[in-house]
Every structure is written in C-alpha cells, then in structure tokens.
Write a structure and sequence with these properties.
The protein has 118 residues and is mainly β. The chain contains no helices and eleven strands.
Length: 118
C-alpha cells in the first residue's frame, strides 16, 4: 500500500514562495507517476502538476505555468512543488497523488493547506 505524506504548506503573502514536499513509501517510487492537485473551498479538486519517474516529463495547469515547478528525488522517495509568485487564488488544500503510467491516480495524501494573503 502506498502512503503519501505532504508537508510545507502555510500562510504566505501574495508574491511569496512556498515549497511543498510529499514523502512516498510502501512501493517502488520510480514505478509511479506523481501528481499535485488542489481544492479550494467550494470548488472541485483540480490538477496542478504531474511528473513521470525520470523527471524529464512534466505537466502543469495553465493557471500555474511559469510560477510552479515540480520535481522529484527518486533517491529520497520525495516529490516537490516549488510555488513562486503566489496569488490569493492559489489558496487551497494541496494534495499529492501517485498512480501508474496510463492509469489513474490511485493513492492520495492527506493534504496540506496553502493560504495566500493579499
């Protein structure tokens, strides 16, 4: 069973930065595609970014392109989301997820709150 634990959320002013981390355990990390999702109050959960095992293939939602960077350290079984130039509309609970290539994201973390003040 895969376990995911996010950390790094918090309160930051608009224009600031945060780095989220997600620690993976229970299976072989490099076998999984890792993703970041977020859910704001009253809204559906949305895709933010994803990264394949090699780190060479990444994807981003249009709303975060150029501001957020996803990376992974396969030696540490950890995926990161560097968030720069944060905006109040980035406020949400951020979730880490893991899935097989070509499949769905089957495993989810508990989420970490990110709050951006204006």
């Amino acid at each position: 069973q895969v376990q995911l634990v996010e950390s790094g959320g918090g309160l930051v002013q608009a224009g600031g930065s945060l780095r989220l981390s997600c620690a993976f355990s229970g299976r072989t990390f490099s076998d999984y595609v890792m993703g970041w999702f977020r859910q704001a109050p009253g809204k559906e959960r949305e895709f933010v970014s994803g990264i394949r095992w090699s780190g060479a293939s990444t994807g981003y939602a249009d709303s975060v392109k150029g501001r957020f960077t996803v990376s992974r350290d396969n030696a540490k079984n950890t995926v990161y989301l560097q968030m720069n130039s944060l905006k109040p509309e980035d406020t949400a609970v951020y979730y880490c997820a893991a899935g097989r290539v070509g499949g769905s994201y089957d495993f989810w973390g508990q989420g970490t709150q990110v709050t951006v003040s204006s």
